[in-house]
Amino acid sequence: xxxxxxxYEKARWTMDRSRLFLGGVMGFAAVxxxxxxxxxxxxxxxxxxxxxxxxxxxxxxxxxxxxxECLLVLLVSPGISGASVAGERDRGMYDILRVSGVGAxxxxxxxxxxxMNVMIVLIVAGFPALSLVFVYGGVRLVDAVTLGAVxxxxxxxxxxxxxxxxxxxxxxxxxxxxxxAVMLFLTAGTLLIHYLPSFLFVSGYGEAIGSQIDWFHYLLxxxxxxTFYCVLNSQAGSKDFxxxxxxxxxxxRPNWVTEHWTGVSLTLFAVLSIAALLLTAVLQRKFGRKx
Amino acid sequence: xxxxxxxxxxxxxxxAVAQLNLHAPEGSIYALVGAADSGKSTVLALVCGLLTPDxxxxxxxxxxxxxxxxRRRRHQLVGYMPAKNAADPNLxxxxxxxxxxxxxxxxxxxxxxxxxxxxxxTGLDRRSDSLMSTLxxxxxxxxxxxRCLIHRPKLLLADEPFSGMDARERAVTEEIMRQLAAxxxxxxxxxxxxxxxxxxxxxxxxMDQGKMMDEGSxxxxxxxxxxxxxxxxxxxxxxxxxxxxxxxxxAVQAFSWQGKRFKLQFLGDAAAQAELLGKMxxxxxxxxxxxxxxxxxxxxxxxx
Lengths: 291, 304
Fold this sequence. Notes:
Chain A is mostly helical. Helix content of chain A is 75%, strand content 0%. Chain A is globular and about 70 Å long.
């Protein structure tokens, strides 16, 4: 008999019959399909009116649908992981688990596996709509698989941050709110920091030709939405999106990081995810006790 | 066996215990009785490791919990039933038990059989496939009790185990507790009502404001409680004679009367009580009824 992590096993049992989860998957697939149909319909109408096929629009549909799927992952992940450990605490199950000898690593690994299980189901549920692109080609199967893998990594990145919030904050509501705040900082916050200096110092900022990139621009490496957009763009043929975004507010010299932006960012996501999970396990052991 | 020696736990958020001593012999049912917020749940949390004592010593089955190596073995020795049900509503009854069987390292058919055996003990095997959300609170409480028994603990800690239980479930649970005690399992349960637990337990501990006010075998503690209880008597003739007698008796601490009915605070055991009655009769007081109160712990818990 294969011994699975019981924490994950329990989450799987409850997930199978949770109406919220089933509704979530259905809603996720429905949103993706709806957007796919709208874009597809618009494209076909355009073809009928103009009597010509703009197949480049297929690639735009791929980018739009990919971004919608990424946005949904960003919106769902904090809600799931933020409530995971804090929810057990609210239900009173957490104390029993601790008395039963469930260690920090076992609890955290079970919880993150359960969260990722949900996210993978959601990501896969969005793929049929994304696969409409293959009707006219332009995107290879390996691109779609890469996209799925990047989405899974982004989900892991956000879920590990959510799990950390769930252990640090004892109430479910606060933990979920903090998880969303982290997600907002990583997406909108890093962009704001990127643009803020040029708004504050209207003239003279970043105008020196070939100057070094300021450190705060590198915060964009933490932005999952931008990195995902970079991946989509590089698949569609535009590989220097990030550098042009940074240069939008200055006149910088390219360097190794800007040349390998997506790879560096994805590696950072993986490293930060592992670090956050290890920190969560350590903090869970420390703060797990009643105060 | 459970022994707590001079255990202290101070907390700004409440739930403190001070200089607590407790001894629950092996195979006994020990009832920790006290008003709400008297520190009973804190004691259980200290024993099961949810809280760490500031000082003092806790010994479970001969193993001191001051040693890290022994603390690691605690989860195999202890079964803990919290005051609040913690079942996941989306789990079936059998899954709920199996989940904990898996946590204790039991998998597959043996885990399933172990859980079904527990359910058969209480007649819940017919409802093994019911979702927890569809079961009444009384059965959820019973399931919570069964969950504690999955790993066959040597020490069972039950916080208000009968709260929310119907008479049938309560009778079954009490019977299982007696069986477990006969097999050598030590059971420590908490209750706010002495009458609730007095018939079941072998040993009693009375707590108030984080302190152990009295502890010992059930008979001894109840006897001591009775010694504090007031005496009620009635006279057939003139009450003035009884008033004069009681005013002159040193053993009588205080008394009050209404018509021919008297209530008096008397410190003394059953022999002293009989002696007092004899002296009253010798003094010519025609006593028509004479009885001692039930010995509730009201005097301990703030004189209520």
